[in-house]
Design brief:
Layout (H helix, E strand, L loop, with lengths): L8 E5 L16 H17 L4 H11 L4 E4 L9 H15 L4 E3 L9 H5 L2 H5 L10 E4 L4 E5 L16 H13 L5 E5 L21 H10 L4 E5 L6 E3 L9 E5 L16 E5 L9 E7 L6 E6 L1
Parallel strand pairs: 1-2, 2-3, 5-6, 6-7, 7-9
Antiparallel strand pairs: 1-10, 4-5, 8-9, 10-11, 11-12
Bound molecules: fe (ii) ion (2 copies).
């Protein structure tokens, strides 16, 4: 029996957006100047990173086998932002394996990308290389993709030709009877009616769609980036075999989610073609107590 045979339950945690309001002037160059102005004006009103402690405590009570993070742990990829978030996560990481992919805010500046700040900060929590394919269990694979690139003006993501080619080759070799869990910051598809602007989407979503369509198997596509939790199955098109799950932001406070947008519990069945257990854990609007919303 492989050591992974008992691995069944995932928790999915989305955009945290840790931030620092006080930043050394030498760091306030280029896009970070815009990002910090945004924080001063708006985001500090929206993101409450202290909510992460409650999320992790509740997640641990569910006895998951792995926590997966869809990125945007930070707001402007400052080392101090990574340090703050990791300090919060650390006590939980000792009790629960974790795997994270970067979001565009974790590669906010070209310097942060050159310095591999995400990879070095999340040592042990992030894959060393992308694409990263691993066996989750005897019945499921996990594929982690890097879709985050620094960008002076827009928030577009990109997986890139080489990573897509490599992904396709890995999936060619993967056993066809296993299910696939994809972890990627950007969505490859959004629900009907949901706007996805040019400036915020994955630039090569069509190419990624093509790769997934060439490797049809029961697939879950886990992503973040749009701060709004959802799950849906397309009823037409090339991705009908894919369940799309948007993590939402557990630290984002707004009238629709005054205590944050919660997190997901994902129970993977032994038969990948069987129904996946999906539960959205979200704080009650009034009391803040956890409510488990079971999704079909
Ligand atoms: Fe985000
Ligand atoms: Fe993002």
């Amino acid at each position: 029996m492989s050591p992974y045979d008992l691995l069944m339950r995932l928790v999915l945690i989305g955009d945290i957006h840790g931030y620092r309001l006080s930043v050394p002037p030498r760091e306030l160059l280029g896009k970070r100047l815009i990002g910090q102005a945004n924080l001063w004006l708006m985001r500090r009103m929206q993101f409450n990173t202290t909510l992460l402690d409650r999320v992790m405590t509740r997640a641990l009570e569910l006895l998951p086998d792995l926590a997966v993070w869809t990125g945007d742990l930070t707001s402007t990829a400052l080392q101090s932002e990574f340090d703050d978030i990791l300090e919060r996560i650390e006590p939980f990481a000792r009790r629960l394996p974790m795997l994270a992919v970067p979001g565009n805010h974790d590669r906010y500046t070209f310097a942060s990308m050159r310095q591999h700040r995400f990879e070095s900060s999340l040592n042990g929590m992030a894959p060393r290389t992308f694409p990263h394919l691993r066996e989750l269990s005897a019945h499921w694979y996990l594929l982690a993709l890097d879709s985050a690139v620094p960008n002076m003006v827009s928030s577009r993501g990109r997986i890139g030709h080489d990573q897509l080619e490599h992904t396709s080759a890995l999936l060619d070799q993967a056993k066809g009877d296993k299910g696939l869990v994809v972890l990627c910051h950007y969505p490859v598809a959004v629900p009907k009616g949901q706007p996805m602007t040019w400036a915020h989407r994955l630039a090569d979503f069509r190419q990624l769609t093509g790769v997934l369509a060439q490797h049809v198997r029961p697939t879950l596509f886990l992503h973040g980036h749009i701060h709004q939790p959802w799950s849906f199955h397309p009823d037409r098109g090339p991705l009908m075999h894919v369940t799309h799950i948007n993590a939402g932001s557990p630290t984002m406070v707004k009238p629709s989610h005054p205590h944050g947008q919660g997190f997901w519990q994902i129970d993977l069945p032994d038969d990948p073609a069987a129904t996946v257990g999906l539960v959205h854990h979200v704080p009650d609007d009034h009391t803040g107590e956890w409510v488990a919303q079971h999704v079909q």
